[in-house]
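Page header: ASSEMBLY MODEL / two components / 252 residues total.
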Amino acid sequence: MQFLLNFARSKAGQRLVGWMFAHMNALLPVDRLHETETLLAFHHPKPGYPVHILLVPKKAIANLDDLTASDDEFLLDVFRTTQKLVEVYSLADLGYRLILNAGAYQKVPQLHFHLVAGGGNLGDDV
Amino acid sequence: MQFLLNFARSKAGQRLVGWMFAHMNALLPVDRLHETETLLAFHHPKPGYPVHILLVPKKAIANLDDLTASDDEFLLDVFRTTQKLVEVYSLADLGYRLILNAGAYQKVPQLHFHLVAGGGNLGDDV
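Prediction written out in full:
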């Protein structure tokens, strides 16, 4: 697994991960919860919380810095999709958190949001 | 302080907090870092991280559930502002995280994003 992570972080891996989401997302072996023109929402393959959903753009966007006006619809879809998932999974009473890691905190070179809920270590109370 | 927090959570307090950001934001005693038509960015008055910035809409929006299409510009401003702050404060090398707490995790009844960086307990690695 470390090898795969190292590869994903390499320049070639970065291009591949982005390309997969842009062109091959129909083949990704993920449990899709919601899909829009611009994003896929699916369960995290290694969840850190009782509810741990990833929201990933269907085009190669390495990180927050690379977002441009052409990604506005994707960003708005993140919030519309979150609203839907919160309703479907009744997350409001549980409490939920939408997280975007970036810069040195980001491990995979494809922009992604985490929607987490249901306990676990949420870190300092922010 | 507990009294103030309890008040802020009450129906009357909720209206007041939202109203303050909508109509009296020029008077808010905060250290503004960036301002757009739709939001204010300022240092958290009780930071939990070396860098801890709040991004708050300049209108009353209680929580993520209440976001409508009329708030699209605010949401896009959150990301544009984050990009600016990341550049000004050189947060990319430090690593940073954009967080939205909601439902039972949200303490103050005015929607707000946290931009945190520079260590502290960031919780489980998500």
